[in-house]
Each structure stands twice: as structure tokens, then as C-alpha cells.
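Quick one: examine this chain and its C-alpha cells and tell me how the chain folds. Here goes:
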Amino acid sequence: MTGLSDYTAGYQLNWVTGQKAFPTLPAVWLALFTAAPTDAGTGGTEVTGGSYARVQVAGTSATNGTTASGNATLHFASTPSWIQAGMSIYDVTASSVIPAGTTVLSTTGTTVVMSANASGAGVGSGDSIAFSTFAAPTGSAPTTSTSNSQANFVTATASWGTVIAWGLYDAVSSGNLLEWDYLGNYSWLPATVSSASPGVITAKAHGYAASDPLIYSAEYGGTAPSFSQSTFTGVLLAVGPATDTFTVTNGGTAVNTSSTGSGMVRKITQQSVPSGVQVQFASGSLILSAA
């Protein structure tokens, strides 16, 4: 299910039960998938070829000079190229000296200008400064974190296929999957399924239109129906949606059911990436959930 991976959730539970410390603060890379991964970090199909590479969206860098209280310029031996305007800033060494909500205004080869001045004792030389595409979490459980800077991939030099999901890893290749989600910020809706040809899905006031791409899951409760034709695996397309009901096709084939079922359904976005196109995620378009 979308949200925290097994790896991240396991560390979270070990930490809150006093059994194991969290790993050190990771550098984080954004990855794209043409087939969604599992929570275990397996089974997905990440984009390959066409100059595709993961994009770094978080990490740390040590200052090589001080930033006095009342000043907004951080100093580095070399400013990492992945740091860009809009990223959140946090002083890992001395958390109180950079005000909450501070972001990157601009960068040079050796400096970062912040949206707020340093306070208190100021930023020390050698302080570890964390930068992230994502803002501090907000809301009550489950909390969410929204991207507040743009994430830019390279221009595709060959087709990347149809991207349906994204994930965060702690390495530029391989590594541990930390969190993932489908493209498109749509909610999961509770659904029931009839036994029919085709099977009718009921999800109150779903708002879906004909040919909307959908995902079905019974992971958080419910039982998938049995099928006499096709399945609910992968991306489905809505057919004949009414206010509360619709049927689906899978790869162009109507899905027929031979028993009733229940679960959750949500709309997603599919993005074809042909050669010559640059994938960009605008600020606010990526939302993480602690669920």
C-alpha cells in the first residue's frame, strides 16, 4: 500500500518501542516507476535507459564558515549542485539557530541564501545542514509532508514508457525504498464489488469519469473477489461510471467476477514520457503520508 515502506515502518516501530535507533539521516533520491513497487521494495519496475537517473531531493552538507545571528548566508566549500530554491533548511548540529520553515532563496558555487536570518548563536563552521525538497510534516495522524521545491529529471533521450508511481530511496541506485506513492494526489475510497459480468464496483460519490485510470487494493481491509475473466491487478480503466458505481477493464478486457468482494479504490495519473521530454514535478505536486 502507498506510504511508508516496510523498511521505514520497521525502523519507526523499533524506535517508538525503544528497541533500535533510527539510521543516520539519509541522502534521499526520487525514483520513477512504470509498475508500482511493493512495500517490501520489490516487484516494481523502475524506469531505465534514455538517460534516466534518480534525482537527489534531500541530503546534508557541512558549512565551512560561520553565519552570524541576523545574517542569512550559509557558506560551503562547494555548494552541492542538487540544492535549489524552495528547499527546506535545518541545522542538524544546532537545531534552534535556523528558524522553522526556512527555505533556500538562492545559491552560488559556495553559498546558500536563506529565506530567514540565523538566530541565537548563529550557524557554526562545520555545522551539518540538511536540505530537503519536502516541507516539515503537518496535520494530525497521519501527518503529511508536501514538496516545496521543484524536482527536475534530465531530458529523456529515449522513451521512458508510462510512469505511474514514484518512490524515495536512500541511494542513487539500488538502496532501500523509504516511501512510495502513485502519481496523482487522489484519495483511497472504500469499495464493494458485486458478482457479475462485468463486476460492478460501488464507491460512494467517487467522481470518476470514463477511462479514468484506477488502482484496487484489499490490503487495508476487505477481500478481493474471485474472477471469471481478468483480474484487478495493475492499472484498471473505469467504464460507464454512475454516481456511486462503475465497471472496469484491464488491458482492454472487461473484468468479470464470480464472487463478491470489498477493498479500496483510487484514481491515479499516468504520464507517458517520450524521447525529448523533461519530467518536472512542480512545488506541491508530491505529497508524503506517514500512513
Q: What stands out?
A: Residues 10 and 289 are 16 Å apart (CA to CA). The longest helix spans residues 6-16. The chain has a mean pLDDT of 95.
